[in-house]
Amino acid sequence: MKKGEVKTYKINNEGKEFVTGYFTKNQYFGYSSFIKGLAHFENSKAITTTQLYKITKNEIIEITKNNPSIIYEFIDLLASNLIDVKEQLILLAYGSVRKKTAITLLKLATTNFVNSENKITISRSNLAKSIGIAKETLIRTLHDFKVEKLIEIEPKSIKLINKKKLLKIQ
User: Fold this and answer.
1) Cβ(107)–Cβ(21) under 8 Å?
2) Tens-binned pLDDT, residue by residue, of the chain (170 aa)
3) pTM score of the predicted model
4) Which letter, b or e, does each residue of 108-139 get, where b requires 16 or more Cβ atoms within 10 Å of its Cβ?
5) Domain count of the chain?
6) Cα separation of 148 and 126, whole Å?
7) Quick check: is 5 in a domain?
8) Is residue 6 part of a domain?
9) Which CATH number goes with the domain that contains 130?
10) Range of the domain at 151
């Protein structure tokens, strides 16, 4: 990505959306289909005004022929994504709503979704969809975190106040 914010997502048979990832400047997405030679198996949507680079398969082949160290960067990227997905699966399968919400907020706090005031800027709807919970459940959980003085809530942003306590939530 050159600039902007994009979410990737899947929709199940009942029409429910689950956000599978968020991407910002200098990040790659869509490469799994490319590598496997398959049709895209998830959707993407720009969240903000976005500019993308499109790299063809032939361009990738040429780049890697002339610069084999790039292959190791892609392997590292794939391995990191695999680890992240496995951690997310364990969290989704066994984590409480509070734990899922806390971990997701902590992850978002390390991305480009944090503005200049150190606040996470994401819609409540997208946040709920990335955790796999109902928006109403998310709002109640965020309210509880606010009462516990773990976060501050504004209409379009969330500021993490106590990251250590968020990390310890079970």
Assistant:
1) no
2) 899 989 999 998 998 898 888 888 888 888 777 777 777 778 999 998 999 988 888 888 888 888 888 888 888 888 988 898 899 889 888 999 999 999 999 998 887 678 778 899 888 999 999 898 999 999 999 999 999 999 999 888 999 999 999 999 98
3) 0.75
4) bbeebbbeeeebbbbebebbbbbbbbeeeebe
5) 1
6) 23
7) no
8) no
9) 1.10.10.10
10) 96-170
CA distance 108 to 23: 11
Tokens found for residue 30: 């869509």
What is the C-alpha to C-alpha distance for residues 148 and 99, in angstroms, rounded to an integer? 14
> Rounded to the nearest 5°, which phi and psi values hold at 94?
-120, -10
**Is 27 within 8 Å of 73 (Cβ atoms)?**
no
List the structure tokens of 28. Answer: 């790659």
Please report whether residue 20 resides in a domain: no
Q: For residue 82, tell me if it sits in a domain.
A: no
Question: Tokens 């109640």, residue?
Answer: 140
* Helices of type H across 1-134: 31-36, 57-66, 69-94, 97-108, 124-131
